[in-house]
Amino acid sequence: MQLCDNLIQTLLKANVVSVTRMTRLVLPQMVQRKKGVLINIGSLSSDIPCPMLSVYAATKAYVDKFTEGLEMEYGKKGIIIQCVLPGFVCSNMSGIRKSTLLAPSAKVFVNSAIDLVGIARKTTGYFPHVIFGNVLMSIQGMCYSFCVWLVTRSMENSRLKSLKKYKKQKGKMEA
Fold this sequence. Notes:
The chain is mostly helical. It has one domain: Rossmann fold (3-Layer(aba) Sandwich), CATH 3.40.50. It has 5 helices and 3 strands. It has helices spanning 5-33, 54-74, 106-114, 127-142, 144-174; strands at residues 36-41, 79-84, 122-123. Strand 2, helix 3 (106-114) and strand 3 form a beta-alpha-beta unit. The protein starts with a helix and ends with a helix.
């Protein structure tokens, strides 16, 4: 695990601490009104093997499990509680610059996910991500080591591209 303490703390604060604290702030008001919508953003990475993203995937698994428990506790009180588990989305955060079928633009993803509010407790928010997740889960069920190899290879390729881009930008800054 080659993560600095700052990155680990950032992931924990963003995906565990903030989700828990924000829920603690807004949920009592929803209970009082007997209505509300609470949507937490997890990640498909929490359901599939994610080498090189272990801490990130684990914090997103927390979001999913936390949301599941909340839905069981508060779903019958008129509050819609849902966890969205997207795959890749074209955004500044993901570093994906061009949208594709499996990496939609943020706008396309949000429009799709909003249509699913209240339909299911847990959703990928975007139909192609459902297919992608199911394919990976099927491969994982048939041959776990192949699934891990496939995901690891994809992650390593992505990392190499990012490092190459970083070195290129660093070289421009030094010149």
